[in-house]
Every structure is written in C-alpha cells, then in structure tokens.
Amino acid sequence: MAAYDYLIVGAGLFGAVFAERARKAGKKVLVIDKRPNIAGNVYTEDVEGIHVHKYGAHIFHTNNRKVWNYVTQFAEFNRFTNSPVANFHGELYSLPFNMYTFNKMWGVVTPEEAAAKIEEQRKAAGITEPKNLEEQAISLVGTDIYEKLIKGYTEKQWGRPCTELPSFIIRRLPVRLTFDNNYFNALFQGIPMGGYTKMVANMLGDTEVRLNVDYLAEKETYDALADRVIYTGPIDAYFGYTFGPLEYRSVRFENELLDQPNFQGNAAVNYTDRETPWTRIIEHKWFEFGKDDDGNDLPKTVISREYSSEWKVGDEPYYPVNNEKNAALYGEYKRLAEDEKKIVFGGRLGEYKYYDMDAVIASALACAEQELA
Ligand code: UDP
User: Fold this and answer.
1) Which residues line ligand 1 (CB under 6 A)?
2) Is the pLDDT score of 328 beyond 70?
3) 35 is an active site residue
4) Catalytic (active site) residue 176
C-alpha cells in the first residue's frame, strides 16, 4: 500500500484547492513544489509591510458564486477594483475602453457619438468577420484605439504581430459605453487581505508540504509514494518535450523599493507604446490602499516593471501561447497524458490554458469532485 492517497505536484492554486478537497474527504495527501515557497504564481512576499505580487499582479474576480463562496473561506477580500491606466507616450487613457477613453481619444461626449465613431472606423477598415487579434480589436474599438492602446502593448506582451494572435485574447477586455473604469465584468472582485500566500497556506492547513523538490528529477521515487498523482507542472516538460516544447511567454520583473509614498497613483499603469521596453508598472501598495494597520500611509512604495519575453527551457513559463500551432502540439501531449492512468494533469501549465484564478479554482473543484466521488 502506498503511503499517500494523493501526491500533488505544485503548491499553486490548482494543487492547493485539490489538496484541501482531498484532505476534507479524509485522504492522505503529500504536496511537493520545486520552489522554496507555496502559492505558485500567486505568491506574495512581504516587503516593508507591502504584499508584493512576486510573479505578477493577480486581481481576483469571478462571476462564479460557487468559487467565490469557496475562496472566501480562506481569506477575507478587500474592495479593490482594478482600473488600470494606459500610458501612450505620456498620454494617459482610462482602461478598460469606456466613455472616458473615447472622450479623451476623440472628444466625443455621448455614448451615441462614441458608438458612431467606432462604427465609422470599423467600416473604413472593411472588417466583417475578424480572423485574428488585430481585426477583432479594430472591429471592437476602431483603429485609433487599436494603434495607441492595443497594438504596441500586445506585440510587446506576446512577441508576435497582432495578425498572428488569436482574437479571444482581446475579448478578455470589456468595451463599455459607460463611465465605468472597472476592468472586469465580474460580480465579485478583490484582493485577499493578508496576501495570497496566506490564503493558500489556509487552504493547505496542516497538509504535508515538501518544498525545493524537483518531481521530474525524482519521479519514480515520488510516484511510488502515492496511489494517484495530481500534476500541475508543464505538460510538455512531463513528457520530456518529446514532441518539442510548447510555446509560452515568460515575464521578468524589475522590482524597486522607493523612498516615496506614491510613485504612480495607481496599482497598474500599462505602457501601450512600442518604444517603452516594459509592458506595465505595478505599484503594489495600491492593491491594499497603502495604509498600515493604524490607517497611516506607508512612507515607501514597491514598484515592478514588467518585461515580457519568449520562454525557453529553464525559464519560468507564465502565459501559454494558445494559437493553432500550439493547440495541435498540445493535442499530441494530451493524447499521451490520457494513457497515464495514475496521473491527472491540471492548471494553467498542466492543461496549457490561459486560465484566470477563478477558472483554475473551478477546474480544481470539478476535478476533485470527480476524483473523490
Ligand atoms: N491589452 C492591450 N492593452 C492593454 C491591456 C491589455 O492591448 O493596455 C491586450 C493584450 O493583448 C493583452 C490582452 O489585452 O494580452 C489581455 O489583457 P489582460 O489584462 O487580460 O492580460 P493579463 O492581465 O492576463 O496579462
């Protein structure tokens, strides 16, 4: 008999949710992670009282009541609403695309005027059925916004021309004929008070966790410990890149602790021109309103400049590049995965899917329901 019912590879959101469900169902669980910390890419680190989102900004938002009821058992959420600002060569625009954006771009005042302007630009571009991100963007918001707020940012972020990217990426962003700067169309939104690491620690509870463990290097040893394995690492790495690597985008962060209380006045400023080398600057304290426990403004601030790059073996993978070529390659890996009867592949890397946090949690809950039934 194996020592554990489940070995969970990866202490990120998928792994932590599955671990919590399995423990609740009375299973013996071991979680391992190759990093020195839990929480995967939602990991937050305390710097001068500020929770720094070490692997990129994460803003929790969902329309899924079941997921919201689930996560709020492990953290209390603040009322943070994501309202990024776009900086195009020093011109500032509101995001997502809304009446403030349209007014600044074109001087239009009413929703009717904004809609007419978009329609005029869409017509001039002659797009009827958008086939890629560029065509989708122009047909949603017109050429001016595409040129100033989308093209440069997207090509820096993805390292590919917008004509070669799938249109679903841009449909993540709302387009609104109202003065609503909320980036998300979600019923529930916020940041866990105390940071994401604490939330994941609460999910894991007293589950046994071993850090700094390279599963793929010691696969046989670890597999022998459990009846079932939940693997949340990259699916192509699991199979030794046998069909070649899937493409990912990686991100590099340049973090700075500044001796000033307010650097940019907002959590996220996107640099949408092609010339600025970073995609965005995150000022972490504004996720939590920059106040300490006594309500005083913190005298310092931490900022992260975010640079996007093509992933190569050995880098941290962040974003799967979900285009046709990779979908076909993923399909080949998925067929191999189906033959691994003891292993379940889950999460952004295990399923090669551009999952948001709520979707990862929903998927882990569904996976647990099926596994533990
Ligand atoms: N995007 C853009 N301009 C912006 C912000 C986003 O063109 O100022 C596009 C870009 O293609 C990006 C996509 O919208 O990849 C999705 O953005 P989102 O903020 O959802 O990306 P994430 O926060 O996951 O990096």
Assistant:
1) 86, 95, 149-150, 153-154, 157, 169-170, 172-173, 270, 272
2) yes
3) no
4) yes
Query: Which contiguous run of DSSP H or E holds residue 91?
Result: strand 91-94
Q: DSSP string of 180-235?
A: ---S---SEEE-BTT-HHHHHHHHHTT-EEE-S--GGGGHHHHHTTEEEEEE-S-H
Predicted confidence band of residue 295 (pLDDT cuts 50, 70, 90): low
Backbone dihedral angles phi then psi of residue 359, each to the nearest 5 degrees: -70, -35
pTM, two decimal places:
0.95
Q: For residue 230, give the nearest of 63, 32, 84, 93 by alpha carbon.
A: 32
What would the pLDDT profile of 45-78 be if each residue is shown by its tens digit?
A: 999 989 999 999 999 999 999 999 999 999 999 9
Query: Is 80 exceeded by the pLDDT of residue 289?
Result: no
Count Cβ atoms below 10 Å from residue 178 Cβ, excluding itself.
11
Integer CA distances (angstroms), 256 to 243, 296, 300, 303, 353, in order: 40, 21, 10, 5, 31
Rounded Cα distance, 367 and 373, in Å:
10
Distance CA 82, CA 41 (A): 19
Q: In angstroms, what is the span from residue 216 Cα to ligand 1's centroid?
A: 32
Q: What is the mean pLDDT of residues 76-101?
A: 98
Q: Verify whether residue 271 is a known catalytic residue.
A: no
Length of the chain: 373
Burial class for 232, CB neighbours closer than 10 Å (0-12, 13-18, 19+):
buried
DSSP 297: B
User: Is residue 290 predicted with pLDDT exceeding 70?
Assistant: no
SS3 36: coil
296 has a pLDDT exceeding 90: no
Cβ neighbours, 10 Å, residue 213: 17
Please report where in the chains the tokens 């985008």 appear, as a residue: 249
Nearest CA to ligand 1 atom 7: 150
Closest ligand 1 atom to 57 CA = 23
